[in-house]
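haha ok so turns out i had the wrong file open the whole time. this is the CORRECT one, sorry everyone. sequence first:
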Amino acid sequence: MVSSITKTSLEFAHKVNMPGFWRSELAIAANCGQLGQKAAGNDALQTFLMQRPDIAKLPREELAIWWQPDMVEHLIAGLSKAGLEVGGRHPGAHCDGCKTEQRGSMGVRKYYPEDIKAPRKA
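then structure:
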């Protein structure tokens, strides 16, 4: 069952209408995939991959730079339904790979809940 949030998200992504803004194409591709609109999803996926070809190699790692693990998996599922070939299923947010891999391919530091420390009392 597809949620109304997915439909609303797709409508919003179409309204953004910013050529060259890869996040819009990502949203359109993933949401179309989730909605079963394979042709439209694949068109958006191809545009997205032209803008960001690096994401095709390691989609989870690249998307994890910007989104939480549950959102990454939702995006991956939609992109997969739109035609992106994605190998393997990510075991979860706290797998060994996540704990040891602290930087994405762009060198951005990834933060996980265990990295956040409570402030010291004076």
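Residues 4-115 form one domain.
again sry for the mixup
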